[in-house]
Automatic annotation (TrEMBL):
Residues 1-42 are annotated as: Disordered. Gene3D superfamilies: P-loop containing nucleotide triphosphate hydrolases. InterPro entries: P-loop_NTPase. Residues 1-13, 28-40 have a biased composition (Pro residues). It holds the Pfam family AAA_33. This is Secreted protein. Transmembrane segments: none annotated.
Length: 232
């Protein structure tokens, strides 16, 4: 039996796109380069810049909430990529780090980080900014900045969000599921995050700031980082 005839092309449709899919060419992603600072810093408008930002902080710092708020309100297309979200794509066999850090949880963390990096590079290559968030430690190479730089590129702009311990404990208590940690674990992570002080990375202490104010401060920090990228 012969196949049914193809439907007629809509008026004005290019012939080469009729009855085809995948004809939109997407630029391939590559390492994200350092952003070009404006020739006149006073004219910098970070809301229109295509950037890749890594928001770092302990559980309960509010980094995911701030990242989503910031991404939602930018004047250019912006994606939010949470490493925790990507890690939890694994349903059966999910290796929860809270149950113990071992070769399985490390492998799934590395895989999630590589997946986030691949997504960020492709978004950036197609004109879409990215803000990623992860609890990156200053003293543990496995969950450190090196992997992020390798998977995203030298143009990634890291920013640390680090409120006081009391605030982190309070915010963590409002979390649920895999995202909620014990008070002891939160205190341990927060203590290790203090190592970012003196690292040269920009740090926002949002202990007394609401989400809107923190996002505004993030804009200011990113603007400075574009003009003078931090060494890391």
């Amino acid at each position: 039996m012969s196949p049914p005839p193809a439907p007629p092309a809509p008026p004005g449709a290019p012939l080469e796109t009729v009855n085809t899919t995948g004809h939109v060419q997407l630029p391939p992603g590559g390492p994200v380069p350092l952003p070009h600072p404006p020739s006149d810093p006073s004219l910098a408008d970070v809301s229109q810049a295509t950037v890749a930002v890594l928001l770092i902080g302990p559980a309960g710092a509010g980094k995911t909430t701030v990242a989503r708020y910031w991404a939602d309100r930018r004047r250019v297309p912006t994606a939010h990529i949470s490493l925790d979200d990507v890690r939890e794509w694994v349903r059966s066999g999910f290796a929860n780090p809270q149950s113990g850090w071992n070769e399985h949880s490390e492998a799934q963390y590395r895989l999630a980080r590589r997946t986030c990096g691949f997504a960020a590079r492709n978004f950036l290559a197609n004109g879409i900014s990215c803000i990623l968030d992860d609890a990156v430690f200053p003293d543990r190479p496995v969950v450190g900045l090196g992997g992020w730089k390798r998977h995203v590129g030298p143009g990634l702009l890291p920013v640390v969000v680090l409120p006081g311990l009391e605030i982190v404990l309070e915010r963590n208590a409002a979390r649920s599921g895999n995202r909620r940690l014990s008070d002891e674990e939160v205190a341990r992570i927060h203590g290790r995050m203090a190592g970012w002080y003196g690292s040269g990375l920009p740090i926002i202490d949002n202990s007394t700031y609401d989400v809107e104010t923190t996002a505004r401060m993030l804009d200011e920090v990113v603007t400075r980082s574009i003009a003078s990228p931090p060494s890391w």
